[in-house]
Write a structure and sequence with these properties.
Layout (H helix, E strand, L loop, with lengths): L9 E4 L2 E6 L10 H12 L2 E6 L2 H20 L8 H8 L2 E8 L2 E11 L2 E9 L11 H15 L4 E7 L6 H8 L3 E3 L6 E6 L5 H9 L2 E5 L2 E6 L7 E3 L4 E7 L8 E5 L10 E3 L14 E7 L22 E3 L8 E2 L2
Parallel strand pairs: 6-7, 11-13
Antiparallel strand pairs: 1-9, 2-7, 2-8, 3-4, 3-17, 4-5, 5-6, 9-16, 10-11, 12-15, 13-14, 17-18
Amino acid sequence: ARRFSADRFLRGPEWVRMTAAVPRDGMPFPSSQARRNERLTRKNRLRWRLSHAPHDLATFIERDYRPYTRSRFGEDAFLRPARWFQDRFRRGGLIWIERDHDAIAGMTYDVQGHSLRRLAFACVRGDASLLRTGAASATYLACFDIARQLRCDAIDFRNCRPGLADGLLQVKRSWGGRVVEPDDITHDVLVGWHAATPAVTDFLARWPLVVRRGRNFAAVRSFAPDAPPHRVPPGVDHLLTLRPAAAFGDWTISGVTSTGSRDAARIDGSAANSWKFLRGPAKMIAACGKRCVTPASTTLVSAASAPSVTRDNTYTRAGSGPRNRS
C-alpha cells in the first residue's frame, strides 16, 4: 500500500462490519423501518424457536441454506462447508422462524465473548418469497431476545459491501448497526480518478463509497439530479463531497450530524449494488495488502454454560418488544 500515494487514491476496506448494541427489554427500536418490520412479524404471527439439535443443523444446511444461497447469489455464491457450521454450532444454536407451527426460515448464530454473531440465514427450501412474511426481520428480533437473555452487550451483524447504497448495509443500519473495523479482512481497495467526469460523479451519487479517514470512516459522494437520498449509518463520521469536474482530492469535508433518530442523517445516493460498477467510471487498483489485525482474545461462551434461553417466542406487543411464552 505504501507504493500508492494517499493524494492519488482513496483507501477503503473490501467489506465493512456492522455491530449493534443490545437495547434494554421493552425499549423500542429507534429506526422507523425496524418498527415497521416488527409490526409485520406480529401481523403474520411469526414465532421463533431455538434448537441445539445436530440433526436440525444438518437439515438446515442441506434443505435450506445451500438452495437459498445458490438461488440468491447465482454464480457468485460461496457455500460454507458443513464443518464450518458444526464448529460454531457448539457455541451457539439454530433459530427457526415459524408461522402456524411450520418453519419458514432459519438462522445460525454463535456467541463470542460478549457478542452474539449472526452467521447464516436461509428460507426453507430456498423459497425467497417467504421473505415477504417478515422472516428475515424475525431473526433480528430473535437475536435481540437471545442476546438479552444471554447477557450479551452487542450483536455482530457481520460484513456487508462498503457502499451506502448496499441494501444489506441499510437493513443492518435500521436495526441499530454501526460501521466498525472488520476483523477478518486482510486487504483494502484503492480507488482513484484523474478528474470528476460525469461517469465518476454519477457513480458516486448512486453508490457513495465508505472509505477510511485516519482511524475512522467517511463516505465519498457527489450529486446527481435523479439520485435519491441515502441514510448514513453510525460509524461513518464525515462526508467527502466531490464537485463536478474537480480533480482528485478537491472535495468538501463535512461532519455527519443527526437530530434524534439516525434516520435524519441522509445524503444523496442511489441503488447500484455491485463493486463491478467501479470498473468503468472509477479507477480501481487491485486490492493492496494490509497487515491483518488480530482481534483481542475473547472467551467463548456456549449456550449451555450461559443463562438459559427461552426457546419459543412470539411478537405481540407494539412498542414493548417480544413477549415470552412457554
